[in-house]
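Weekly puzzle thread! Below is a chain. First person to post its structure in token form gets bragging rights.
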Amino acid sequence: MQLGMVGLGRMGANMAQRLLHGGHALVVYDRNRDAVNMVAESGAIGVNSLAELAAKLDAPRTVWIMLPAGAPTEETIEGLRAHLSDGDVVIDGGNSNFKDSIRRSSSLEKQGIQFLDVGTSGGVWGLENGFCLMAGGSKAAFDHVEPILSTLAPPDGYAHVGPSGAGHFAKMVHNGIEYGMLQAYGEGFDILHSSDFDFDLQRLSHLWNQGSVVRSWILELAERAFAQEGTDLASIQGYVEDSGEGRWTVMEAIDKNVPAPVLTLSLLARLMSRDESCFSAKVIAALRNQFGGHAVKREGSA
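Winning reply:
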């Protein structure tokens, strides 16, 4: 299937490579020309503008946007609008707010352009393992792009989860749960690290993945982080960013009167990490770097 891809960052470039490996024809654009050239070397057609991207695609066009939430995604959709027509499909695979996705879908629909909000999880490991995809929008649009989704995802790794906004809502809550899981692991390893016993945290991470009830991929990444950074994580500052989805999840919980103390406190713990370095925050920062390629602040840096 032919697809336009806008945004070739950590995840977008890997998604493009996986689609090319799956036999799809890609036209790619990013403001960073080096990123375009890198994907073009694997067989994609690289272009220099949104207008050129649209012109290279056969109607009905399908364009996947993989950009940061907010202004970058908004500006790109508005920039594409003038070059798309009735029957085309726009997919937002970034972490946009679900309310923005509902608004964008309604606006594009007036031009006959279909919109899918596809919550995408998989981080920097998606090229190898596949991406988990949660699609919101019309079933007709979902069916049209299903060949793309089936290539990007592992078996049973994609689904149509509801109307416009549902995909990004599901991904928002997914990331809110992630906050709580990371906080639990971070606090547990902090207690181990602070104890009177000289635990080998890399070895213990590996041990817990052998049949224990807390085994997980995150725990595998903990073992990897301790192997790379050392048990004390001495080179990492205990500063943990939040990308917005955790905040939105907590706000939705409050708005719907759903008690979510674990997710709320895990968000607040991230805010606390910016004033005071602690080992649990170091663990969380290291894990976010492992699964998502998120930058960490190194000790000794500003």
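Puzzle host: Confirmed. Bonus trivia for everyone else. Strands lie at 2-6, 25-29, 45-46, 62-65, 89-92, 114-121, 132-136, 158-162.
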